[in-house]
Specification:
The chain is mainly β. It is built from one helix and eleven strands. The strands form three sheets. It has a five-stranded antiparallel beta sheet, with helices on one face. It is elongated, with a radius of gyration of 22 Å.
Length: 160
């Protein structure tokens, strides 16, 4: 090989940050997060069976998908690892709602975030639109996990 050859590499990977981390199933508790069927979920119920003739005690998890609200269940041996998503919650002030369904949010450092759509849940959508139309200052929570984002109303701040 000569030094004059031009080598090109094509990268198909992301920055390398993992969307999940392993945690022993026996240590996951109610209120924690868990990946079930490749969906980030919040655990609402945990029950553990005793060790049987086949070895491991089993953990039965009942969880709610944090993005679509669907109930999912999984059974994992308590000594095995399961995936736990990195979940981030950030609060923003709602500045504007565009006609095409995108929201404009004020970040902590004074910039705007304009790449999120209104939620599809009808009751939440009505709350946000009605509160905004009434001139209330709305604070919303944006949850992110595994590359997905979810907009949620956290509280109303009423201006007199």
């Amino acid at each position: 090989m000569s030094d004059s050859e031009d080598h090109q590499f094509e990268s198909k990977a992301d920055a390398g940050a993992s969307k999940t981390y392993p945690q022993q199933a026996g240590t996951v508790r109610k209120g924690g997060y868990l990946v079930i069927k490749n969906r980030p979920c919040k655990v609402v119920e945990v029950s553990t069976s005793k060790t049987g003739k086949h070895g491991h005690a089993k953990c039965h998890f009942v969880a709610i998908d944090i993005f679509n609200g669907k109930k999912l269940e999984d059974i994992v041996p308590s000594s095995h690892n399961c995936d736990v998503p990195h979940v981030n919650r950030t609060e923003y002030q709602l500045i504007d709602i565009s006609e095409d369904g995108f929201v404009s949010l004020l970040t902590e450092n004074g910039n705007t975030k304009d790449d999120l759509r209104l939620p599809t849940d009808d009751s939440l959508l009505t709350q946000i639109k009605d509160g905004f139309a009434e001139g209330k200052d709305l604070v919303v929570t944006v949850m992110s996990a595994m590359g997905n984002f979810f907009l949620n109303l956290t509280l109303f701040l009423i201006i007199f």
